[in-house]
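Today's session is about reading a structure prediction critically. Students often jump straight to the picture, but the first step is always the sequence itself: look for stretches that repeat, for charged clusters, for runs of hydrophobic residues. Only then move on to the predicted structure, which in these notes is written as discrete structure tokens rather than atom positions. Here is the chain we will use throughout the hour.
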Amino acid sequence: MLTDIEEASEGEEKNSSGDKYETGIEMLKQEGEKISNQLLETKKMLEVMDRMGISNNEKIGFGSVVMTSDKTFFISVSLGKLLVNGQEVLCISGVAPIAHAIKGKIAGEKFNFNNAEVEILQVV
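Below is the predicted structure for this chain, in token form.
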């Protein structure tokens, strides 16, 4: 995306309407900065995950992979949905509401979230 923005800004040709040119360049610059910041944040989150590893505790906490009757969660950093070996895994922050709801629980326990009862099938 950053390369596309750089190419677009280089490809802009100044014409008789200079304001339009300047506005276009500024918009491309702002979009580039936004994408750069997102990339930096993603790199930081991946570094945290690399250092963290996966928890081997029975009780759910930071680093746990939790398979429920509804979804599979990885309590780490908020990266959203990832596809792991063909299975969707939601990478959630340890401060997310669902993480608070399951923290300290073990496989076989149930919890309520968003007015639904969910069973914890496995904790890895």
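Discussion point for the tutorial: The mean pLDDT is 81.
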